[in-house]
Each structure stands twice: as structure tokens, then as C-alpha cells.
Design a protein that fits this description.
heterodimer, A: mainly alpha, B: alpha+beta, 10 strands, about 65% helix
Chain lengths: ~90, ~650
């Protein structure tokens, strides 16, 4: 009985490991490099996240109006620069 | 079934080794076929280990004493639940359990990886399997639970499990703890995968997030469950003794908690990259170190396994982990440079960094305490241990500082905030909390640290309530929403922040409980004859009788004690503490009688009985607010699980 279970485990395991070498790989995970465009979108998402946090911090009185506007201007400038780069790379 | 089990773990070992080597090759050569083969191998590591652990469980349940390990840790009179939990009652089986639970994590990782395209995953799978490979190497070559009993005849019965481990919590605590420990291998795999592949954007952080939250939730639950077991079983009235093995489980929890906070800084500001890499490496390394300390005999502990000679294998592995991380961080140092700096000490980034430094300070202090006996023996020849006073003296102030920071965080903005705006947001909660502190003094609460602890917890609670209230008001005003609709929107849009505050509330509940049960604990020793009464706190304890009892597993004597409230003589509880003698193991234990209450726990231990059974000695503890420690843990774990649930789509769109 033990020998049959071991044999079954061996066969199924070997089949699972060897099978992909003989299969077509269409529609499966592909290797992709992260392009400059994708990296720019990452940066854009980060700045958008910061702007959202800024709105929340200001609305919950953690920042004065001057502080809020100063930081918002900085982040908006950063965002506009990133969006320009995204447009240029398309 | 021994042969099948042994074959299964050898198969798992081979598959892991294949996955380690070919996973790296797949990543280097960007070969999809090799990658998919490695993914399948990872899945079948889980299947092979499932077969192995099932064989061991079957052997325990069928009393197969041809197996050395089963004979050592089981006997026929044990209930089935303890026969199954005996799998992890000894070193060999517990290593197999570790391997199996790790394989579950790697299985889900492998399934997840099929949906993720990119260069990162082959390396991640390879590193995750390297963790499996290490622990399987230990299991196959050093701690194999499928060894045959070296005897010419099969014994009719086994040795049995340590009576202290025959407890429902011990059936659950190790698997829970191992789920926490082993899942920490996955963030480590992502981190190393990112370094190896060069994919050092925040992608690896996003993919890691859910894993580290799962690990942290299980680790928190596992550690507290262990404390609960100690509370119920060891009879000293406490739940945490800064035992080396307890500390070993706490160390990776501290660094993982630090990482959970500092990762938010990297996600927003692309800062602290090297810091976060090393936090993840440290967390996993401390997990392995903890396992080494528990199993090598280097430290003495009631929780430790018997001493073995596998310590050097762990040390070699730890050396490899640290060396690989060092080489890769130097190699990738350019990509790991922070893009920005912390602009102001009055910012949330700075608060998180200080929070991290405190966590690491606590971690270092505890690690020093754990390793000091080893160093002292090596240098002086004498093993000197460090006791509870050292840990409390260093850690209590540091933990209170952390509690204070928990209150600071909600009140401080990202990037920078002026001193003026901080004062504006701090002032009201500070004043109210101080009034609360004065009220406590007036009510008779004594002790600097307890007062500080309660006041700080109240301060933090106020800041969290203020934060919720302000944000909720804005939500409802901006969209004319009801309270429930507004709360739901708030939690959906800013789930990490506001569910995080829920977890903090759980921590506050735990802190208040720990403070109360440590600072205001009542402990008395007394003896009673039949019908005599002893008063302690608000309770009167009367001994009714002392009687023997027995089961198949043990002989015992118990004391029947009635408890009433002293003021009005109202019935409160019947407590029956026991002294047990397990004949098979030649071990004696004391079974605590416990009455839990929202206000306090009444904890009674039968310390001894005179020769004719006419007089019994007891130890009684009154632990104020003890039960809130367990409630607080439930809140913390529940909040963490809420954070793990997938949220609604982000407001921005990913390029892919």
C-alpha cells in the first residue's frame, strides 16, 4: 500500500513539474520590464495620494490655510511636471 | 505510513531545492516555461507536506508505536484532540508543522504569482522556497518524525504528552504562532526578490502588504494565546514573564510593527527604502533566531524544546541571510537612495521614524536580555540571567512613549506642520487628559507609571475620537450623508488610517489591562481547614471540602472553595483548584481555578494539603481588568483582518 502511494505521489509530482516545458505559454504570465511610462504613473499615483492626504489633513484642522496652500502648490507643481513627462513619453 | 511520510518529506525537499535553483534561473533568463514549472513545484511542496503531516496524524490517531516520535509523545488514554496536538508536542513534529504551515503560505504565493506579470516573482518564489528548503533540511536530516522505534518489540502503550501541554490553548497556540512566523518568510521573499530583480519601485511593498498584515495578525494572536496558556496553566498568576522563548516570539513582532508604520512613509514619499529592506530582513532573521533559541538548548525556558545539536545549522543560515541582504543592499544602493528628505520634525514622517526607533530600542533591549546569559557564560564561564526587573525598567518607559506617539500621529500632518497648528490640535486633548489624571489621583490611584499609563491611554483615545469626529463631520457636510453612510465612506476612502485607529484602540485596551493587572494585582498565601474563611480584596473564600478524584490519565486531589462578596455575603463563584499526578509521565501539575470577570479575575491555586487532608494551603491572586487584555487582542486582530480585506478601487489608474 505504501509503495503505491509513494509511486502515485512521484508520478503526479513529476507530471506537474515537467508539463509546462511541453505547453504553449500564450495567455500565461509574461516577463515585462517596467517601462519609464509605468514608473511615471507610479510617481503620479504617489503624488495624487499625497494630495488626498493633504485635503484630509487640512479639513481636519491639522494645517493652517497658509501651510495647506504652500504644500498644495508644491505637490501640484510636482504633479504637473510628472504629467508633462507622461504626455511627452506617449 | 512511516515510509509514506518519510518519502513525502523527501519529495518536498527535492521540489523545494528544484524551485530555489530553477526559480532563480527563470528570473535571470526570463523563461516563462521554467517559471511555470517552478510555480507547480511550489504547489506540490505543499501537497507532499500535506501527505507527510497527514501520515503523522494518522499514526497518532491509530496509536502506531512503531514510530519513535509517536511512542514518545502519545498514549492510548489521551483524547484525540491531544493526540493530534501531540504532533507539535516535541521538536521533530513541531518542525514538520512549521514546514507544513510554511508550505501553505508558499502555495498561496505560487497561486498569486500566476496572476502577476513581471520580473519580480520568479526570484520571490525562489527565495520563499529557500526558506522551505532550509526547514525541510532540518526536518529530513536532523529532526525526522518518521523514525522507527529502536526496539525489538512494539510497546503496548506510549509515553504520553507532557500534562502541561494537554490544554486546549496548546492545541491552537503553536499553529497560530507558526502561521505568524512562517508567513513572515513571504515579505522577506518579496524584499529579496526585489533586490535580486532590481524591481525596487513600490510594487514589492504593495504585494507584500497583505502578507505582512496576515503574519502580524497571527503573530499577535499567537503570542497572546501563549500568554493566556501560561496564565491558565503555570499557576503563578501572570501571563508574561519575559521568558527567553516568549521574548523570541516578541522580537519579530516588534520589527514587523515598525515596518507596518515605516512602509507608509515609503509608499508616500519614496523614503526609508534601505530602512524598510532591513526591517523586513531583521524580522525574518529574528524569526529564525527565535527558532534557534527555542530548539538549540542555548536558553533555559519552560517553553523550550529539549536541547539538540542543530544550533549550528541555524547559525549558518542566519549568517547566510544577513550576508545576502548586505551584499544586495550594497549592490543596489543607488536605486535604494531616498528621493526626498524628512522636511520637519513636526511631521507624520518624523513621528513614524521616532516610532520605529523606539520599537528597535525595545527590540535591542529584549535581545540583549535573551542573549546575555550566552555572552556571560562565554566570557566569565558563569551563566547569568536577566530577570523581569531589567525588562520592565527599560521597556515600560519606552512602551509609554509609543503610546504617546499613538496620540501624536493622528494630530500631525504629512510633510510638515507648524508648531502653532500642533499646539492648536494638541491642547484640548492634553488638558482633558491631565484633568483625568488628576481625577485618578483624587480617586486613590497610586504609582507614577500606572497614572502615566492611564492618562496617556485616555489622551490617545481622545485624539482618535477627535480625529474620527472631525473627519466624519466633513464627510457628512460635503455630501449630506447620514452618520452610517458618512462613516462607511470615511472607512472606504481612508481605510488604512481609520481602521488603523481601531487597531490602536485595541492596543489601548490591552495597555490599560496590562497596567491594571501588573500595578494593582493582589497576591496572598493562606491555609484553611474545612469551613474556615479567608478574606482577600472584596471576596471571602471558604473551604468546603478536599476530595480525591481520578481519570485514566491522572490522579488528583481538589479543594472545593465557595466564594462570596465580603460586603453583602452574596454568592460569587465555586472554585475547585486541583493538584494532579500523571502516573505515566511521573509529573505533577497544579490546575488553577479561575473566575473571570469584567472588573477582575479571581485566581486560586491549591499549593498543598497536609497529610490527613484536613488543611489545605492556597495562593490567591486578584488581577484587575485582566480579561480586557484578551478583549483588546480580539479588537486588534479584528482590525487587522479588516485591513487585509481588499478595498474598493483606488482613485487613480495604474499604467498597466
Amino acid at each position: 500500500m505504501a509503495i503505491y502511494i509513494c509511486a502515485l505521489l512521484s508520478i503526479i509530482t513529476a507530471w506537474a513539474v515537467i508539463k509546462p516545458y511541453f505547453q504553449s505559454i500564450e495567455g500565461t504570465a509574461q516577463f515585462t520590464e517596467k517601462t519609464d511610462l509605468m514608473l511615471l504613473h507610479d510617481q503620479k499615483n504617489r503624488v495624487v495620494h499625497m494630495l488626498r492626504d493633504l485635503e484630509l489633513d487640512f479639513s481636519t484642522s491639522k494645517l493652517s490655510k497658509d501651510e495647506y496652500e504652500s504644500i498644495k502648490n508644491e505637490l501640484s507643481f510636482d504633479l504637473s511636471e510628472i504629467l508633462k513627462k507622461i504626455d511627452n513619453s506617449k | 505510513m512511516n515510509e509514506v511520510g518519510h518519502f513525502a518529506i523527501c519529495t518536498a525537499w527535492l521540489l523545494s531545492a528544484y524551485a530555489v535553483v530553477f526559480g532563480a534561473i527563470a528570473g535571470y533568463r526570463k523563461n516563462t516555461k521554467i517559471y511555470l514549472s517552478v510555480v507547480n513545484a511550489s504547489i506540490f511542496v505543499f501537497i507532499a507536506e500535506l501527505v507527510a503531516i497527514s501520515c503523522l496524524a494518522y499514526g497518532f490517531l491509530t496509536d502506531d508505536y512503531t514510530n519513535q516520535y509517536i511512542w514518545q509523545y502519545s498514549n492510548k488514554s489521551m483524547q484525540n484532540i491531544y493526540k493530534v496536538s501531540a504532533i507539535w508536542g516535541g521538536m521533530d513534529g513541531s518542525m514538520l508543522l512549521w514546514c507544513f504551515i510554511l508550505s501553505v503560505s508558499v502555495f498561496f504565493l505560487a497561486r498569486q504569482s500566476k496572476r502577476i506579470s513581471g520580473n519580480l516573482m520568479p526570484y520571490v518564489i525562489s527565495i520563499a522556497n529557500s526558506s522551505s528548503l532550509f526547514f525541510l533540511t532540518i526536518t529530513v536530516y536532523f529532526t525526522n518524525p518518521f523514525r522507527f522505534l529502536k526496539s525489538i518489540y512494539i510497546p503496548p502503550d506510549g509515553n504520553g504528552l507532557n500534562p502541561l501541554l494537554q490544554n486546549p490553548y496548546m492545541a491552537v497556540h503553536p499553529p497560530m504562532l507558526y502561521m505568524g512566523f512562517t508567513t513572515l518568510a513571504i515579505p522577506y521573499a518579496f524584499c529579496m526578490g526585489a533586490l535580486l530583480s532590481g524591481s525596487l519601485g513600490n510594487e514589492w511593498l504593495k504585494l507584500t502588504r497583505r502578507w505582512i498584515l496576515i503574519a502580524w495578525a497571527f503573530l499577535t494572536a499567537g503570542i497572546v494565546m501563549g500568554g493566556h496558556w501560561a496564565y491558565l496553566e503555570l499557576g503563578w498568576g501572570g501571563f508574561w514573564a519575559w521568558d527567553p522563548v516568549e521574548n523570541s516570539s516578541f522580537l519579530p513582532w516588534l520589527t514587523a510593527t515598525a515596518f507596518l508604520h515605516s512602509v507608509m512613509v515609503q509608499e508616500r514619499k519614496n523614503m526609508l527604502k534601505i530602512w524598510n529592506v532591513w526591517l523586513v530582513v531583521a524580522t525574518y532573521t529574528l524569526t529564525v533566531l527565535g527558532t534557534f533559541l527555542t530548539r538549540s538548548g542555548v536558553v533555559q525556558s519552560v517553553h523550550a524544546f529539549a536541547s539538540t545539536d542543530i544550533g549550528w545549522v541555524f547559525l549558518v543560515y542566519i549568517g547566510l541571510l544577513v550576508s545576502l541582504a548586505l551584499i544586495l543592499t550594497v549592490y543596489r544602493s543607488k536605486s535604494l537612495k531616498s528621493e526626498k528628505k524628512i522636511e520637519s520634525i513636526f511631521s507624520r514622517e518624523a513621528a513614524f521614524l521616532i516610532n520605529n526607533l523606539i520599537f528597535l530600542s525595545i527590540c535591542f533591549a529584549i535581545l540583549w536580555g535573551v542573549l546575555f546569559p550566552v555572552f556571560s557564560e562565554a566570557i566569565t564561564g558563569e551563566k547569568q540571567s536577566i530577570g523581569i526587573p531589567f525588562y520592565n525598567a527599560i521597556n515600560v518607559p519606552l512602551f509609554l512613549l509609543l503610546i504617546f506617539l499613538m496620540g501624536v500621529g493622528p494630530l500631525i500632518a504629512w510633510k510638515r506642520a507648524s508648531f502653532k497648528s500642533i499646539i492648536r490640535t494638541f491642547l484640548a486633548p492634553c488638558i482633558v487628559a491631565m484633568i483625568f489624571g488628576v481625577a485618578l489621583i483624587a480617586a486613590g490611584v497610586e504609582g507614577f507609571y500606572p497614572l502615566l499609563s492611564y492618562t496617556l491611554c485616555f489622551f490617545v483615545l481622545l485624539t482618535i475620537i477627535a480625529e474620527y469626529t472631525r473627519a466624519l463631520r466633513i464627510q457628512r457636510a460635503s455630501a449630506d450623508k447620514s452618520l452610517i453612510a458618512g462613516s462607511t465612506t470615511l472607512l472606504k476612502r481612508h481605510s488604512n488610517r481609520y481602521i488603523g485607529y481601531l487597531v490602536h484602540i485595541g492596543v489601548l485596551v490591552m495597555t490599560v489591562s496590562i497596567t491594571a493587572s501588573m500595578a494593582h494585582k493582589v497576591e496572598k498565601e493562606f491555609s484553611l481547614s474545612r469551613n474556615e474563611t479567608f478574606n482577600v480584596g472584596r471576596f471571602s473564600l471558604t473551604l468546603n471540602k478536599v476530595l480525591p478524584t481520578e481519570t485514566e490519565n491522572y490522579n488528583a486531589v481538589y479543594a472545593d472553595v465557595s466564594v462570596t462578596t465580603t460586603r453583602d455575603n452574596k454568592y460569587y463563584a465555586d472554585l475547585k483548584p486541583e493538584m494532579r499526578a500523571y502516573s505515566r509521565n511521573n509529573e505533577n501539575t497544579s490546575e488553577v481555578a479561575l473566575k473571570m470577570g469584567l472588573r477582575e479575575d479571581l485566581y486560586l491555586v491549591l499549593a498543598g494539603i497536609n497529610e490527613d487532608g484536613s488543611r489545605a494551603s492556597f495562593k490567591v491572586f486578584i488581577n484587575p481588568l485582566q480579561v480586557w487584555l484578551w478583549f483588546g487582542t480580539v479588537i486588534v486582530v479584528f482590525g487587522t483582518l479588516l485591513l487585509i480585506i481588499p478595498k474598493s478601487k483606488e482613485i487613480f489608474i495604474d499604467a498597466s
